[in-house]
User: What shape does this take?
Amino acid sequence: MDFSSKRLEQAVNEMAQLPGIGKRTALRMVLHLLKQPEDQTLSMTKALEDFRTGIVFCTQCHNLSDVPLCEICANPKRDSSQLCVVEDIRDVMAIENTGQFQGKYHVLNGIISPIDGIGPQDLTISSLVEKIKSGGIGEVIFALSATMEGDTTNFYINKQLSPFELKISTIARGIPIGDELEYADEVTLGRSILKRIPYEDSLSQ
Assistant: This one.
């Protein structure tokens, strides 16, 4: 692809690094931005800059937050004895939209995927174990996607938590096998949380 402008080429190359965006799509997006009022484009770039430089991970659950302790962890009305283990912020948002869970979360920031070079040490599993050791948690709910990677992660965490006296459950398989949690509709996901089952029972399904 030949460019008449180095600045245009640089902008396209940067945009093309986004997931699912090829060079042609990136070119259309960049040219669209060029047609917009300058202040609108600058406002978008400023928002992205603020996001990248100002976002932090919650010190308790590892969710993305604007402050060290996210709103969910800081909310005294949430049930601290229930801990829902999810892959990332998209799953927190999906579950929160159902209005069916009033506990707290632990965000792994990924799932075990050897093919992608992601192992247990790359996730926040050790932090989860330490959280359980500190006491006060009665139930851990696995809410990972119904994929091979999600099941592998569930199995590994279950082994790590086996020495502790606590209830370990998983969301019911209302979520089709192979589906990502974030794409489930709110009703299905809400029912899956309410009808969660003991994790050991899920292994025989």
Notes: The chain has nine helices and seven strands. The two ends are 51 Å apart (CA to CA). Residues 6-54 form a domain with the Helicase, Ruva Protein; domain 3 fold (CATH 1.10.8.420). The CA atoms of residues 115 and 202 lie 25 Å apart.
